[in-house]
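Methods — Computational structure assignment.
A single polypeptide chain was analysed. Its primary sequence is given first, followed by the predicted tertiary structure written as structure tokens.
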Amino acid sequence: MPRSIVIGNGAILITFDDKLVMRDFYYPYVGQWNHIMGHKNNLGFWTEGKFAWIDDPGWERSLGYLQDSLVASSRAVHRELALAIESTDAVHYRENVYIKRLQVRNLSPREREVRLFFTQDFSIDETEVGDTALYDPQLHTIYHYKKNRYFMINGFTGARRFDQYATGTKRFGWAEGTWRDAEDGVLSGNPIAQGSVDSAISFHFRLGPGAEQTVYYWIVAGRNFQEVRSLNDFVWIKGPQRLLEKIQAYWRGWLDQGPHSFADLPEKATEIYRRSLLVIKAHFDRRGAVIAAADSDIMQTNRDHYCYLWPRDGSLVVCALIRAGYRDLVKSFFAFCANALTKGGYLLHKYNPDGTLGSSWHPWLGPRQLPIQEDETALVLYAFWQYYERFKDIEMASEYFHTLVRPAADFLAGYFDPELELPLESYDLWEERRGIFTFTAAAVCAGLLAAAKIADLLAEKESAWLYRERAGRIKKGIEKHLFNPAAGRFVRGLIRDDKGDFCRDETLESSVMGLFLFGILPVDDERLVKTMEAIEAGLWVKTHVGGIARYTNDYYFKSSEDIVKIPGNPWFICTLWLAQWYIARAVDPAGLAPARALLHWAAVYTLETGIMAEQLHPQTGEPLSVAPLTWSHATYVLAVLDYLEKYSLLTGEPYLL
């Protein structure tokens, strides 16, 4: 199930599904740890003996955000209960505080009592073993804790605090959870429970015909009781309504450094551009990791998740932020990568947000067959040059040349097959196969050229010569070995046959677009043009949904055996690469029309909240795999900025960022 709403502040990331149920609560790192684990912090309503949870099918929901902010604003109506609600949800931009404002309206022609229930289903540090949930009568709060993780829950309506509470056992023995206790409209008042536990609180109020009541609810997170108590006091002193207003103002100010003119792009496209920046920000940890996705439902299919920093994904996300002008945010990413760099000068598969090594399925085969995707190391260098070129930060260039740029570039220059003049084998960007791939070679070439430019800045002449020479040889290797003259196009890569010899992998592959994305070949190169024509013709999904597949017969979440019509599911990233190609090729404003259509396509297939998935079902257009995918949003940002710059160049209209 996709996550329709994400909110956060760089230390907390919270997600909600399309039923308005809180499903993930990450703290103290974005993406680590998930203290709900895809279960439910739910919301229930009781009136006149009837009860419904917010995920009950009787609700009609409309989800969204307040304009230009990470403040969610959603509505729902339940005809049988004759209740309407408006929910506003936000995480404070600085303090570890989540706030909900819930406005409940009586749609009945008579006065009624309404009871509102909040449940808390925490599995602290991703396990329920040893958790404690308790009611504090002095503070009149509920809190859950284990070791150095504390979550305090509180709220009020009018002049009243919550009326009832309960703690209890969940998913153990015969106990389903304290949430069951709420369904009769009365909580037991059990003050403490330990082990696998949950809790609930309730607010009671009477509503006349058409009347409305506002309830404020919050969760604060900290390392100990003193910290959460202080944050609880912070909410009381400042007031949750005032805090919500300040949070909204902060996000509008954060977005204000972007473009204010979007040429001839439709309003929907510009909305998704701004929403994409906010979604990226929510997935960016303060200490430098930008996770791929926070949607924990993916664990139902592969028993792992996307809450990792892949250096490749992170580099391309950072490129989008650099282009959009977010200097301070991206600096921590390079510090993270410098710290993660191995002694050999390469980055490994993926990393946890705290900097430790993430899970992997790449085997260690020896010193010349490392378990890496070489593009991940190369693209960090590519992004670093983008940073310097945008901000002219010579201090950063000097500081990181010795700790990041030179060791990584030396590795790339040495991890090289002199006979083929190509990088040695590694895993492809999709992490599915081992070989020498066009995308990887293009990324390594771009990374070495970036390192050479940085070396030039610092008068490191020998290093600059080495990196530029090696990049030139790799470009020759790409043209010689990764181009098929008979087919008239570049191939996916080289793989070993049964005899151990390299042969061309002719599979039509969208990532070959890296040749133009990283500037390895000019856009008017005839070989590249024919390659792009083949990709568009062969990988376009020939249903009403459309979009570009990753490659022919893509197996990941495969939904059809008709690979002629549906070569694979459409991916936002691959489709937006095609948009970038049309932008790069345009020689007049009319030439931008195909790109504008693809940007509109991407905007249309977002969720109603502006969230982009990894891929779409080719026949229904529904999101598949994780949603949101940070890389999808970053590619949209890059494509829009490419469009605006090219539009300005072709029309003479000023473009300021």
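Note: The chain has a mean pLDDT of 96.
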